[in-house]
């Protein structure tokens, strides 16, 4: 079939699929970055975490995880659940209150209230109340109607709360709470140490407390007769309402008495919780309060239970904590069972029902930031059995000492409909979070930092590339084993001052003998890592254990490949890597050249510079170096380094300037011509290997059948094909060596090559061959010898219908091309961008179609049809930094996943969990006759009567501005449409009923008419026969 026929064929096959694409955020993994607030719904059992960037993370049972974002991006100061109502109130640093609707899978803002003249400092929402108390920095207390989100005219001014004789301002409001004994009493705490109980009915003060130390928090006893305060001097004061002139008790939990008899100074107690229990002594839980005697102490959470004091040390500063209780009513015995501790970089839940206070095992994936993240990789369409196996192996490595009880945050539901199960399994994936090292913070020269990964899900072979120019190959096993890790050392360094002619490589098609420009391979086993090292060559950065090691089940290291130092200079970092389990080969490259390793035989097959890979097919005429430039000047120029910062928490990596895949070289590459008519290129210009891929292809134009090949892409836009000869028999494969040599095809593009892909002649994606996984440490069966099972996807399977060959898709920084192999003719070409460059590209399947997806440096996500390369979508999505159905590091501790498939967007609502579950609110306990008789019963009052517009009037319009939310408008539309639909259905039912009644009325009228006619005829007959005798009838 000719090229024109191919073009017409695929142009006719292209469908208008622009409606199949839509960029939408799906889920977010990791710990909320810079958390600021915490809230818990004791009935729904869901948790909310606010962050400094304006995000709100809502968590329930595992699988129920929702992320919301305030449009303003202001920090979240406080969160308040409308308990068992499916709503959440958030107070932000821009002095705005927001009401979130949680009764939908995607929470949205219903109302917003912006304060104009005062700053919000504290909020309190009583249980089963629609009136929210809002304290401000000026010391005033306002009241907001939750249903309408409008301010009430009822205001508690600070000058009315304090005595007239007081000359100083009490400070901002730091606490608000209603009395458990009487809801009509509001306790107001000011920062200066002043506490006021305000009678809401009488609009006056019941009592005032003036204390010398600043107040941070207040907590009531459930009977409403006592409350406890935490202060800035590390003290706790207990106040009795019978006598408010002085505290009933003052304690310094961590304050020691010094020799002079004075208490040592302590840190502030930022929060205290006072909770009661029927079966034991009350719990007093607080954060802070340690003495200043020792510097560098860890943050602590103290639990006082009777006479026992337990201090729990935390790894990170405490942001907020909250005690979880059995009842939502504040006037009942609380019965605490757990305490949630929100740290700056972690979330901990402590079990209070056990004396040793163990922590619950966190089921959420929140340890992404355990060490600085340097690499993320996303793998889709994994085998269905891989994830359960990984979970089962991970369960064996769990730490001991956790609480055996069920995770207490178990709200929401997460069930997938039958229609979505297959879709979810089709997009089943596994996400690797690769830390820099096992430690916490890492230095600038951490040799263990992970740079990139390569994983074969089918064979479960995992390959990790480190920043120290080393590669570690892992195999997966369900059994532990004693193994000795093999080490291979490679000298991948070019002699840049040597000059060669093309004739020197023409007679060297195979690489059994290396030319003067080829890097020299040097390898040995771990038993002698130093032996045989040439003079002037430094050992590798990392040392591999020389003895056998015991490895647990899971991924077990098998091979380490390290690039050696040359002349005291470190090796260049690895820029690309690919592994193929069917071939048993590992390929990697950097700005110096390419190396191929046979990991089955533990040998190095190829180690050559990029220039030598061309042989006589070099499309550039490279100038030789000036003889006046010596080794010293070369060494000084080629090893100039600059600092590049990876987007991560405190992570800084040093990358070489001559690496052509960084952003600076990509920008500079725009001015360099990529055409084959380039007259000359300086020999100092290093050509980096930017991408590699193994596959079945045609290396030469005259090839008749596809053979194993290695596709090599460089930073100068050149594509090289290296054919390979691999023994097919298993025994021969382990004994005979794999041969590979140059002389393959050379293709050209603009910009650095980023991605390869292969399609058959009808446009179906061809997968790379792989080996089916078999446990290497499983007991051998003598009746069934272990043999490798290979799966090949040959492009020759469709030759009978569409002719010979296959299609090769190549994408670079600026261009995409589709080549017909083996003729190497270009069928389609598309210039992706002229003003920017492509950062990531991938070939994906969407709705049974194949497309090329690209992400550019200017934030645009584009999809192109394959193989015709027609634009299907172009959306500006600037936050994205890594591509594949797709994910990006949204913060140093969070990874955001997005989808650009409309099908996934349509099914997303069913895949997300339900935050709100209809649950009946528990009934309040009956306190009994005696408690009610002696005044122990709670006094209720009608807040609507006090705070409503009829009694309190309207608030000043300049004080706050009501902003209807988008969800509120949509909700109104939905509600309106629902009401209209109900009215329409009722009208139809009435019409049907009226019609039936009309028919019944007509039938009744007919019967009445018939009866009247019958009566008339009967009367006529009666009159006619009235005077006649019987015998005259």
Q: How do you describe this structure in short?
A:
Its main location: membrane. This protein has 1033 residues and is of the alpha+beta class.
Question: How is this structure best described in words?
Answer:
With 1033 residues, this protein is of the alpha+beta class. Helix content is 15%, strand content 36%. The chain contains 15 helices and 63 strands. The strands form 18 sheets. The protein has a 5-stranded antiparallel sheet with strand order 6-7-8-9-63. Strand 22 (269-275) and strand 23 form a beta hairpin. The longest helix is centred in the last third of the chain and has 59 residues, at 966-1024.
What is the average of the pLDDT values?
78
The Rg value, from CA coordinates, equals 38 Å
Largest sheet: 5 strands, antiparallel
Spans with pLDDT under 50 lasting ≥5 residues? 5-18, 416-444, 496-538, 624-684, 797-802, 880-884, 968-981
Morphology call: globular
- The helicity comes to 10-25%
Oligomerization category of the chains in this entry: single chain
Per DSSP E runs of 2 or more residues, the count of β-strands stands at 63
Count of DSSP H/I helices = 15
How are the strands of the largest sheet arranged? 6-7-8-9-63
Terminal CA distance: 111 Å
Structural class: alpha+beta
How much strand? 35-45%
């Amino acid at each position: 079939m000719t090229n024109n026929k191919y073009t017409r064929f695929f142009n006719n096959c292209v469908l208008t699929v622009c409606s199949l694409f839509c960029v939408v955020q799906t889920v977010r993994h990791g710990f909320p970055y810079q958390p600021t607030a915490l809230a818990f719904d004791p009935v729904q059992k869901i948790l909310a975490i606010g962050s400094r960037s304006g995000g709100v993370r809502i968590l329930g049972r595992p699988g129920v995880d929702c992320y919301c974002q305030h449009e303003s991006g202001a920090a979240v100061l406080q969160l308040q659940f409308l308990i068992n109502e499916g709503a959440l109130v958030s107070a932000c640093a821009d002095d705005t209150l927001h009401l979130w609707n949680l009764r939908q899978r995607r929470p949205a803002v219903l109302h917003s209230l912006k304060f104009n003249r005062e700053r919000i400092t504290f909020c309190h929402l009583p249980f089963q109340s629609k009136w929210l108390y809002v304290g401000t920095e000026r010391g005033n207390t306002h009241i907001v109607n939750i249903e309408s989100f409008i301010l009430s005219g009822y205001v508690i001014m600070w000058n009315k709360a304090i005595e007239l004789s007081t000359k100083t301002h009490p400070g901002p409001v730091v606490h608000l709470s209603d009395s458990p004994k009487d809801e009509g009493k509001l306790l107001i705490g000011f920062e200066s140490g002043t506490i006021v109980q305000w009678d809401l009915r009488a609009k006056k003060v019941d009592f005032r407390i003036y204390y010398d130390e600043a107040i941070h928090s207040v907590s009531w006893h459930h009977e409403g007769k006592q409350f406890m305060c935490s202060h800035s001097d590390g003290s706790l004061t207990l106040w009795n309402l019978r006598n408010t002139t002085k505290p009933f008790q003052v304690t310094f939990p961590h304050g020691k008495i010094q020799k002079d008899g004075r208490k040592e100074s302590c840190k502030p107690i930022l929060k205290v919780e006072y909770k009661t229990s029927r079966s034991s002594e009350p719990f007093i839980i607080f954060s802070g309060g340690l003495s200043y005697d020792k510097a560098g102490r860890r943050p602590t959470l103290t639990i006082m239970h009777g006479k026992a004091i337990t201090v729990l040390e935390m790894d990170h500063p405490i942001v907020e904590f909250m005690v979880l209780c059995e009842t939502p009513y504040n006037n009942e015995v609380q019965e605490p069972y757990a305490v949630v501790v929100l740290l700056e970089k972690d979330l901990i839940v402590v079990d209070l029902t056990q004396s040793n206070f163990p922590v619950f095992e966190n089921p959420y994936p929140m340890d992404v930031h355990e060490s600085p993240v340097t690499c993320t990789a996303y793998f889709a369409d994994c085998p269905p059995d891989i994830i359960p196996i990984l979970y089962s192996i991970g369960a064996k490595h769990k730490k001991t000492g956790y609480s055996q009880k069920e995770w207490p945050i178990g709200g929401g539901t997460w069930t997938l409909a039958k229609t979505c199960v297959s879709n979810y399994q089709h997009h089943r994936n596994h996400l690797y979070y690769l830390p820099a090292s096992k430690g916490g913070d890492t230095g600038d020269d951490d040799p263990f930092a992970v740079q990139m990964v390569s994983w074969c899900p089918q064979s479960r072979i995992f390959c990790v590339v480190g920043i120290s120019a080393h590669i570690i190959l892992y195999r997966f096993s369900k059994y532990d084993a004693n193994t000795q890790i093999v080490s291979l050392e490679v000298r991948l360094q070019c002699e840049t001052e040597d000059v060669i002619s093309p004739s020197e490589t023409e007679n060297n098609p195979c690489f059994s003998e290396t030319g003067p420009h080829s890097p020299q391979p040097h390898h040995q086993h771990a038993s002698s890592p130093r032996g045989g090292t040439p003079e002037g060559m430094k050992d590798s950065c990392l040392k591999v254990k020389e003895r056998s090691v015991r490895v647990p089940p899971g991924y077990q290291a098998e091979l380490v490949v390290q690039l050696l130092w040359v002349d005291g200079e470190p090796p260049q970092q690895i820029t690309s890597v690919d592994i193929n389990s069917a071939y048993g080969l590992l390929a990697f490259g950097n700005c110096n050249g390419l190396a191929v390793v046979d990991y089955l035989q533990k040998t190095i097959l190829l180690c050559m510079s990029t220039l030598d890979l061309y042989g006589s097919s070099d499309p550039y005429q490279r100038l030789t170096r000036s003889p006046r430039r010596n080794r010293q000047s070369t060494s000084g120029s080629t090893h100039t380094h600059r600092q590049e910062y990876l987007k991560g928490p405190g992570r800084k990596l040093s990358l070489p300037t001559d690496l052509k895949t960084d952003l600076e070289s990509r920008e500079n590459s725009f001015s360099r011509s990529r055409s084959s008519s380039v007259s000359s290129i300086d020999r100092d210009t290093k050509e980096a290997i930017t991408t590699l891929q193994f596959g079945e292809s045609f290396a030469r134009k005259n090839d008749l059948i596809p053979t194993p090949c290695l596709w090599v892409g460089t930073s100068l836009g050149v594509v090289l094909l290296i054919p390979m000869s691999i023994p097919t028999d298993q025994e021969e494969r382990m004994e005979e060596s794999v041969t590979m040599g140059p002389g393959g095809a050379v293709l050209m593009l603009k910009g650095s090559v980023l991605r390869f892909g292969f399609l058959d002649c009808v446009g179906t994606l061809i997968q790379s061959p792989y080996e089916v996984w078999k446990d290497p440490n499983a007991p051998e069966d003598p009746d069934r010898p272990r043999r490798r099972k290979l799966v090949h996807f040959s492009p020759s399977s469709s030759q009978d219908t569409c002719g010979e060959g296959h299609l090769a898709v190549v994408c670079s920084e600026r261009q995409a091309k589709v080549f017909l192999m083996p003729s190497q003719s270009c069928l389609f070409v598309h210039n992706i961008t002229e003003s920017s460059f492509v950062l990531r590209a991938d070939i994906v399947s969407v709705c049974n179609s194949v497309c090329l997806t690209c992400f550019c440096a200017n934030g645009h996500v584009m999809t192109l049809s394959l193989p015709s390369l027609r634009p299907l979508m172009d959306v500006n999505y600037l936050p994205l930094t890594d591509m594949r159905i797709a994910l990006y590091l949204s913060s140093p501790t969070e990874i955001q996943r997005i989808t650009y498939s409309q099908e996934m967007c349509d099914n997303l609502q069913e895949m997300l969990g339900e935050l709100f579950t209809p649950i009946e609110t528990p009934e309040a306990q009956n306190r009994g006759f005696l408690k009610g008789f002696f005044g122990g019963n709670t006094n209720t009052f009608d807040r609507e009567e006090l705070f409503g517009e009829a009694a309190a009037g309207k608030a000043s319009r300049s004080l706050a501005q009501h902003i209807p939310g988008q969800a509120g408008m949509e909700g109104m539309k939905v509600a309106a449409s629902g009401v209209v639909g109900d009215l329409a259905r009722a009208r139809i039912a009435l019409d049907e009923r009226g019609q039936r009644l009309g028919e019944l009325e007509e039938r009744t009228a007919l019967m009445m008419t018939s009866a009247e006619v019958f009566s008339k005829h009967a009367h006529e007959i009666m009159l006619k026969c009235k005077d006649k005798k019987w015998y005259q009838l």
